[in-house]
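Attaching the record inline, Q. Sequence:
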Amino acid sequence: MASVHLAILQLTLLWVVEASIVNTNALPLAKDGCEAHCGNVSIPYPFGTREGCYVNDNFLITCNHTYNPPLAFWADGNINVTNIRLSGEMRIYAFVAYDCYNGTGRSGRKNHPWLESVNHFPISNTRNKFMAIGCDTYAMIKGSSGTNYATGCMSLCDSTRDVVEGSCSGIGCCETAIPRGVTDFNIEVSSYYNHTRVWEFNPCSYAFVAEEGTYNFSKQDLLNLKDQDNMIPMVLNWAIGDQNCGEAKKDLESYACMANSECHDSSNGPGYQCSCSKGYQGNPYLKDGCQDIDECLNSTICVQNCTNLPGTYNCSCQLPGYDGDGKWDGTGCKLIPSPERFPLIDRISLGVSVNLLVLVLGISWLYWGLKRRKLIKLKEKFFKQNGGFLLQQQLSKHNGSIETTQIFTAEELEKATNNYHENRILGQGGQGTVYKGILPDNKIVAIKKSKIIAQSQVEQFINEVSILSQINHRNVVKLLGCCLETEVPLLVYEFVTNGTLFNHIHKTDHSSTLQWQLRLQIAVETAGALSYLHSAATTPIIHRDIKSTNVLLDDNYKAKVSDFGASRLVPLDHTQLTTLVQGTLGYLDPEYFHSSQLTEKSDVYSFGVLLAELLTGMKALSFERPEEERNLAMHFVSSMNESRLFEILDQQMLNEGNVEQLNEVAMLAKRCLKVKGAERPTMKEVAKELEGLKAMTKHPWVKGDMSSEETEYLLQKPYDDCVGGVSGNSACYDSIRKQVSISILDDGR
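Structure, as predicted:
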């Protein structure tokens, strides 16, 4: 943790230097008669240490004099404040979450800290990162006040040899961004195997929110992240009130920005902030707090006479031979010669001026020419570095027999995305950011800006692009082209209009529009696409990241499998690949996780989780559920083994679906979720079985308006027996059909 303290010291010095710039001019910080400091911390108004010295209770700072020097705490709580900026930032200390185990895997110390702020003090999304440390670690941060959110990351490694010092890329250390508008959080940190496999060099998992730049990961921290009971610095944003500037100015009595100041809407949550106008400095929240800057104290600002004015200054010329009216050309005083006395000088001056102008224009033309040539060279370098020539060779082999990938220029995609403006972002993930693009022919596309890839992966990347460009399957998002002129390769896909399957299943108002037959259709189409990738493509492709957020839906709810950033091509003479484990928590194949051996059955497992998601309406991983139910795959299999399938199925599915059909799909999902890959079916078998189930139609003797007692009876004992039995048990289903027939006859039909 020495690196943490050094970084904190450096950032603290920067904050102190900024504060000292104001102090050197003896400008007021606090109200008259109010304390302006607590120990080493400046307390500028609207903050204060007692009533009458702060704008409202949210800005109270309690100064505890039992410490030496005294420490500042926010309000009357235990949040230690170490710095306050008038620009709208406040640095505090936050606790570290940890989860420790002994050598036998028994839990030892554990701490899951939380922080509750107020609406006007959101956690800075630009100054902080959420970080997790450990080699058997997954952590989550979530909150419900301000912005509802939940995010996290996992950190895995087998030994310290895999760890890169100072890197937080997911091997020993991972980090992720904090959303905007967040005003509270609680952190949960845990492990997969109680650190039993890595205990000798990593007995604990850690997680915390830290001010960016204050923590530098070290291998030594895996063994003992020292001072874990102490706290890590983080930054809050603060603002005045709930209104924006336009609304606040309507009530001048409560408007906080004083004379010679300007108002700015808060960029992180509600409220507004004030700053001194140009040419003024000080505290904009105090009466007469913004005072004029005397620019004339800077001896280099004017060549001759300088006159200070409110908020500005004036340079003038009052020497013999100069224009006494004070004309100023921006760099110095203009010499006003007499036309009669200096005609030769005029001609010489004109000639020199013209020559200088030509020289300046020539240098400018040469500069921009060299700069443009350098840019062209850089694009050529990236094009070659990203395998552009290799891709051209691959595409030339097709000889126009199929639609091939279009190679876009960097300028075309910049224009299509409005220079990658943030309002064009469609989504962000572990492989990169996806933008909405509009091409010159008004065709809408999705443009993926991938993360930087290693030079050793270029050939594989190009081969993958070439293969994907040849895929013409109705349920796979079409790759239209790419751009290799930038440091980070850009991929251009068809635009799918109706969002992700995840959003349709897990709508926040719990009003999913996806009925059972539509869900089954999506499952059939997704399975068909994966079967095609595994067995019908020119070179087999393992997707490696099948999940509901990577299944897109068009306006007709047709499924489109997307995001091949983690995919791998499988040589025809191989059945498995050894790779660095990659995937999404909740969908990750446990056999692949343990062995690093990637096979087609890894996609089958992920698809099994997707089937369970469609059946239950539950998320693949949720920390809001009890601990034994957090992982949907384990909860689903356990419920089926205990004959409790219909307790976890989505009630909407039970009301709409064919019960026998639901049970068959559930049995198929259970087979896909086998721990051993060899026991799972292939995607071809899965697709064929789902197609058969889709073809099942309701028998004419099934009545649509059965009484609730009949339905409840049908959903208990008979189906419990079927779920616990072997898939396809004809005796079991014969029994069910008899139950149905009896209930219909009893109804008098």
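Residues 708-749 form one domain. Residues 343-385 form the longest helix (43 residues).

More tomorrow.
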